[in-house]
Specification:
The chain is mainly α. The chain has 2 helices and no strands. It is elongated.
Length: 70
């Protein structure tokens, strides 16, 4: 069985990059939502915002556990 040694420094960098990317995507989806008239696209954007918020919270939680984001 593999022992969990925690998050490595290079993984912290990757987490920060993913968090930055997810925040950018989330911002864009929120900004685009009022401009969209197609109901199907609105539903996709609404779902994307919901998932994006969840992913951001999960990434922030991992960063806090790593001790990087105190």
């Amino acid at each position: 069985m593999m022992e969990n040694k925690g998050i490595e420094p290079n993984e912290n960098v990757q987490l920060l990059e993913m968090l930055t990317f997810k925040n950018l995507c989330l911002t864009k989806s929120v900004a685009m939502s009022p401009l969209v008239s197609d109901e199907e696209l609105k539903a996709i954007l609404k779902n994307d915002v919901s998932l994006g918020q969840q992913h951001v919270k999960e990434l922030q939680s991992l960063l806090q556990k790593s001790g990087l984001n105190k």
